[in-house]
Amino acid sequence: MGKQATIFLIFFYLMKINLASAVASPLNSSTDEHSLLAIKAHITFDPNNILASNWSLGTDFCTWIGVTCSRRRPRVTVLNLFNMSLQGTIAKEIGNLSFLTYLGISNNSFKGVIPDEIGNLRRLRRVKMSYNQLSGEIPRLSFGFLTNLEYLSIQGNHLTGTIPWNIFNISSLQAIGFTGNQLSGTLVTLPNDICYHLSKLEGLYLSNNQLSGDIPTSLFACSQLNILPLSYNNFTGAIPIQMGNFSQLQELYLGSNKLSGENNYFYKS
Ligand SMILES: *[C@@H]1O[C@H](CO)[C@@H](O)[C@H](O)[C@H]1NC(C)=O
Ligand SMILES: *[C@@H]1O[C@H](CO)[C@@H](O)[C@H](O)[C@H]1NC(C)=O
Ligand SMILES: *[C@@H]1O[C@H](CO)[C@@H](O)[C@H](O)[C@H]1NC(C)=O
Ligand SMILES: *[C@@H]1O[C@H](CO)[C@@H](O)[C@H](O)[C@H]1NC(C)=O
Ligand SMILES: *[C@@H]1O[C@H](CO)[C@@H](O)[C@H](O)[C@H]1NC(C)=O
Ligand SMILES: *[C@@H]1O[C@H](CO)[C@@H](O)[C@H](O)[C@H]1NC(C)=O
Ligand SMILES: *[C@@H]1O[C@H](CO)[C@@H](O)[C@H](O)[C@H]1NC(C)=O
Ligand SMILES: *[C@@H]1O[C@H](CO)[C@@H](O)[C@H](O)[C@H]1NC(C)=O
């Protein structure tokens, strides 16, 4: 074998190692620690000094306030920062907490956008980001990857744009909460049937937005749906007749919309 070929082979071998590590790039417990510290670094105000004093490098991050690790390995499964009066943005590095099943940051003052990187967290079951000041659009694609998601609540923020259709593809979802944002667009132009994949959906909270167009009749085919707040939007048209046959529904809120037409089928026995 000539010198050139040998050099080429060595080069190729190094390339392969490089590629392999780039592709696999295993996220490990030190990545989790790095991610938590990045999250802390994006918090600009922590009036009760909760993270400032507790989340300190060199200590076991599994003991940090709001952090729970897996019993089997030092990987973060729960991040719960509920009601800590925190201000700041959500660090992209959150997407590296690859064992996360529960993300709770409700009732703080997080602002800015929801990072797309959340879509990397395929084990997520519960996402609670209500009552913050999050703005921008709901990440278009990311949430569609969260195929284990059961509970998604982003109520009381400043989100704009339309509801990404692929959220309605997540068949594990039991509750979707978007009440109290500035979401617009219609639900009827969404392709096919909202309920087709959502056989477990029990609550769809959409009140206090700027949603418009008809209330899709297909909604009333969600067999488990029992709470459907749609009030304070710009929905128009008639109240769908299918609603009258809807046995599961216990709470339906339609006030303050622009609905019209007959609705006497409610009174049929
Ligand atoms: C963890 O992953 C990082 C980045 O991929 C790497 O640099 C580090 O060596 C890994 N640590 C361990 C203990 O495997
Ligand atoms: C952080 O707080 C928890 C719970 O109060 C405590 O168990 C832990 O030792 C604290 N860690 C540090 C580094 O202060
Ligand atoms: C949230 O925090 C505030 C004070 O910052 C406290 O008054 C309130 O009780 C807390 N709520 C819950 C549910 O812990
Ligand atoms: C973690 O996330 C950041 C930002 O999303 C990314 O740049 C970085 O490569 C990720 N991986 C590790 C091992 O930190
Ligand atoms: C949210 O935080 C505010 C201000 O700290 C507090 O007054 C309120 O009780 C909290 N809400 C809940 C549900 O804990
Ligand atoms: C939703 O699911 C259907 C059927 O499984 C698939 O054809 C479609 O591409 C999915 N849409 C999105 C946006 O993921
Ligand atoms: C909703 O209705 C209000 C009042 O008619 C109107 O000012 C607003 O532009 C509408 N918004 C949308 C998104 O249709
Ligand atoms: C409601 O149910 C009755 C009896 O099961 C059926 O005849 C009727 O077609 C249904 N109406 C609608 C709008 O689904």
From TrEMBL:
Segments forming domain Leucine-rich repeat-containing N-terminal plant-type: 30-70
Protein keywords: Leucine-rich repeat, Membrane, Repeat, Signal, Transmembrane, Transmembrane helix
Cross-referenced InterPro entries: DNA_repair-toleration (IPR053211), Leu-rich_rpt (IPR001611), Leu-rich_rpt_typical-subtyp (IPR003591), LRR_dom_sf (IPR032675), LRR_N_plant-typ (IPR013210)
Coiled-coil ranges (or none): none
A UniProt-annotated Pfam family: LRRNT_2
Secretion signal, residue range per the UniProt entry: 1-22
Domain of life: Eukaryota
Name recorded for this polypeptide: Leucine-rich repeat-containing N-terminal plant-type domain-containing protein
